[in-house]
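EI: anyone free to look at a 159-residue chain?
SC: sure, send it
EI:
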Amino acid sequence: MGSDSDFPVMSKALTVLDDLGIGYEVHVYSAHRTPVQAAEFASHAVENGFGAIIAGAGMAAALAGVLAAHTTLPVIGVPLKSAVLEGTDALLATVMMPPGIPVATVAIDGAKNAAWLAAQILAVSDPELSSRLKAERTAMTAGVLAKDAALQEKLKGNS
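SC: here you go
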């Protein structure tokens, strides 16, 4: 993440990764204040065993692009809300990458979906993770159907 102040939003990704049993590291690197360290991290990510990188940043939000420029791993950008433009600036900065240096981009403050997307990417070559993802989807479906059933029962009581 671009700043330690991004942690409250980005920690939501960690919860998803923990629930799915996916290991991770968390760092603060700034595309503008620590570009050498950010580039070094990304350029060694493959040899250090990473399968994807999630990068959260607000305002100019160049971090995901800087990381993507230094690795062939999938980079998932999380544009973070700021006080000035409500995260629209970060969204545009994250999504508007030049050809050949893509950054998958989730919603503003969408750290949870960034983790889900990273898990799906990793699951392509990990059948056990794929099974855990399928189980989570089944649980999500059951949860929604249970809420619908409760609502239908409540509506019956009001008629």
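EI: The longest strand covers residues 53-58.
SC: 👍
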